[in-house]
Specification:
alpha+beta, 2 helices, 3-stranded antiparallel β-sheet
């Protein structure tokens, strides 16, 4: 059984300027790509993005709830990574589908007649 460690980082809130990127969504996608690639270089696999509630203080006694967008990453713990390969290969041997019960192309007999169900008619 593999064990993982997790890391949660805030999602970017705005896109960085970059040459050739003018639209807001292009800049944001570029920034998100940078974050994902940086985490991937350190061995972190992207799991998902979540919007989680966060209570904040307002004034002396008040609170308000806001939502924070977070990116969740995971990687195999160092001890497990040394004992298990990080890449799994499919075995070249065919996997048995279990015992065969009969010829797959043999006809099972005539199809049942279709019609109203017996005993279920509304009275």
């Amino acid at each position: 059984m593999q064990r993982y460690e997790f890391k949660v980082v805030p999602a970017p809130r705005r896109g960085e300027k970059a040459r050739g990127l003018k639209a807001t969504e292009d800049r944001f996608a570029y920034t998100l790509t940078q974050v994902l690639n940086e985490m991937g270089r350190d061995g972190w696999d992207y799991v998902r993005a979540d919007a989680l509630p966060c209570d904040e203080r307002v004034g002396l006694t008040g609170t308000k709830t806001s939502f924070q967008n977070m990116l969740v990453f995971r990687r195999i713990l160092e001890a497990d990574a040394a004992t298990q390969p990080s890449v799994r290969f499919l075995s070249p041997e065919p996997v048995s589908a279990g015992p065969r019960l009969g010829a797959a192309d043999a006809p099972a007999g005539p199809a049942p007649a279709l019609g109203p169900a017996n005993g279920l008619a509304a009275e």
